[in-house]
Task: structure prediction
Amino acid sequence: MSSRISLTRYLVEKQRMDGHIPSQLRLLLEVVARACKSISQAVNKGALGGVLGTAGSENVQGEVQKKLDIIANEVLIEANEWGGHLAAMASEEMDSIYVVPNRYPQGEYLLLFDPLDGSSNIDINGSIGTIFSVLKKPEAQTGVEEKDFLQPGNKQVAAGYCIYGAQTTLVLTVGDGVAMFTLDREQGSFFLIEEDVRIPADTKEFAINMSNMRHWDAPVKRYIDECLQGQEGPLGKDFNTRWIASMVGDVHRILCRGGIFLYPWDKREPEKAGKLRLMYEANPMSWLVEQAGGASTNGKQRILDIVPGKLHERVSVILGSKNEVERATSYHSGL
Ligand code: AHG
Ligand code: MN
Ligand code: MN
Result:
């Protein structure tokens, strides 16, 4: 008999022992995992399944949508709308919120997702993923509106991502550490591979899109310049660079072995706070990183404390190994 712990068993035991996963949240997480399994199948088929290439449309943020952006979005909606655990969903790929249709019961949770992260990697067989965040609908209220979603990341009740890479791995937090589950394709189930994931406080690896250097602000330039000076510079160590162009891929590496990831504000689009989306990307990833002992800021404040002004709000991101994130953040206040 196998001693492996399936995601289902992990969630059932967590609900039973700690009592802090209500049954509706457990159902929600199982449904999200099932949707990710289905997206993973589509990703795996690639050209053979006709899923590569662009869809010929743009999303609300003016980005060209890939076929898989749309497929993944539909899979997540269809999987989650009928179970009775959700009130509404919001996605990077949809203009406004998706309220659970009247023909289904309405639950108390709100689900937010970036259905397919790292879209530029789809056609090159690179790592991509799905990122999700779960909030609770404000109490004592009937119906659901967009403003119900505008809660800071510190109000999340669950968050995670599924990486479609060399393996398909689901990474999850419900607020008591980070656990990882890898998909066993023969059995069709996720199995626990690591519990209590920890990010080392120090690192010699940084991730940033260097081609944007000339557009950065002085504090980011200063920090990366010091990394590049290596052993001879003020940081006194030689750094290595990694950039996967999928936040899921970069955050996964950081959860596995540490590192610092930056996607800062830059002068290309000065009116936007950054490229990454606060509610679909930065919040869930920041909570995972903090739960693993790392840190996450926008240079000025903890990302999880930002109160969103709108659904598709963007944010500047510095996350990963605590000591390096604190150093890069301190440069923003002129320390
Ligand atoms: P998405 O594919 O959901 O639009 O997200 C892509 C994001 C993020 O995953 C990644 O870190 C970053 O954009 C890559 O940006 P560059 O193309 O500037 O490298
Ligand atoms: Mn993304
Ligand atoms: Mn996306």
Observations:
- Residues 205-332 form a domain with the D-Maltodextrin-Binding Protein; domain 2 fold (CATH 3.40.190.80).
- The CA atoms of residues 272 and 282 lie 15 Å apart.
- The chain has a mean pLDDT of 96.
- The first strand starts at residue 54 and ends at 58.
